[in-house]
What does this fold into?
Amino acid sequence: MTAWAVVARWDLRAALRDRWLWTLAAAFGVMTLAASAVALSGLRVLGLSSFDRAAAALLSLSVLFVPLMGLVLGALWISGERESGALDFLLAQPVGRVGLYVGRFLGLAAAVTSATWSGYGGAGLVLAWGAGTDRLPAFLWLVLLSTLLGLASLSVGLAISAAATTRGRGLGAALLTWLTFALLTDLGVLAAALALRLPSAVLLILAAANPLSAFRIAGLAVVTRTPELLGPVGMLAVDRLGVVGTAVTLCGVLLAWTAAGLAVGLRWFVRGLGP
Amino acid sequence: MIAWRQVTVRYRGQVVVQNVSLEVPTGQRVALVGPNGAGKTSLLRSALGLIPYTGTVLVGGVEVRRDPVAARRQVGYVPQLLGFPPNLTAAEVVAFAQELRALPPDPAPVLGAAGLGSHGEKRVQELSGGMLRRLGVALAQMGDPPVLLLDEPTSFLDWDGEAWLVEWLRETTGKTVVVASHQLRGLERVVDRVVLLDGGQVARDVPAERLRSVHWLEVVVGTPIGTLPEGVQVLATQNGAWHLRVPDHRLREVLEVVGERPVRVHEPPPERILREVLG
It folds into this structure.
């Protein structure tokens, strides 16, 4: 087995025991389960089907929890090892830095994906039981998108970790990043749009550049049959690109974030040397 | 064989190792001693390709910068700050390291050698500092690497642990060993050479046998004492405390004279020993 595969396998095992990851995954699972149950409990309200309500709730929860899982796990991983001395132990083994970093990403990616899927598991069962399986593809689309969001967040978190000297700094930077993506970017785009009277195409690009917005729009565009849930930017995206085009483009945004995070993190990890 | 040739290491704009040339032939054991910040750790880390340097570092004929993985394959390393991947048990850490070195995973003998046979299922966070140090030393030997680099291996070890380490070093023959330490702690009895680093440069390089005849300790007494036993010298008085130079065989007498007064006994710093030996 190659060194990166060895690192990936052992990092997966270690990450699956990480209390941060499972605390967040457990909270995510409970919330998605509750949201699905509540959404299915009513009849059609305000013209929304029960599945639409559940999907909207799952998207909102995923926007909060999935990036947090990826960012926090990634940001604490290498920085924590640097602080404890475990990184020296690994770097002293006959494995190159690139192999070590890629192996770590793959191992942690598997762990974040497992946590994300387990968080959706209960909700999936409730939705299948309450709403039938005819919307199963839409639900699986949500899971796939959340997986991509988890990978993008992990890649950014790991890059933070490659640069952070302590766990505290890594965690702080991860939370700040999460806050920026979850709240500040959208507010900033909105403010810029109002103040600068940005053209709609620029507004769309700015909104889509935020991985959380990309995830939200891509999810709603495909899953919901209620255009009002998309919001103005989402409606504009669907209008310009169509549903499939919007979904593919925004998946591309999430993959681009994953690749960019990996490239930057790898560069920092390989070059960030110090006694 | 391990060789540093005109090696300079810079960290955050400061030179921490300056133009050091040092060669350790195959099978030789060297104690690299010096105060904190002397550059010991940086020199060891350069041999693993963990830090950037200028000059040449050769491990078993491999230029470290050119092929750090091949160099690391020949080295067993015990870092100063010893940590292991979190959330894994001691047995899993050993298996992980074995797989990274392309060895069949078999943690039991390694744990047994470290005296941790009954602690294999404990997570590494649950092991004491001494246990971790023993585990680190055992891991460094895995795969029988021809070169051992040990950075402050006695830290976190109690008296028994230190004795175990010195004994282990004595029995480890045929390997090229470099031990970095800010104190000798009996290392002079098991190494061939002692190299003093100071300010990032080699200040002294002497055969260890020249230090084996030095047997004295420093005793710091909180308050003045009356008559000193024969052979005991006052090195300094500072803030009312007396710093004494006490030959090993006079220590018991000195402690009897000191009585209930606060007292601290420690080995003299290597640089002082070397200064005394070399004049």
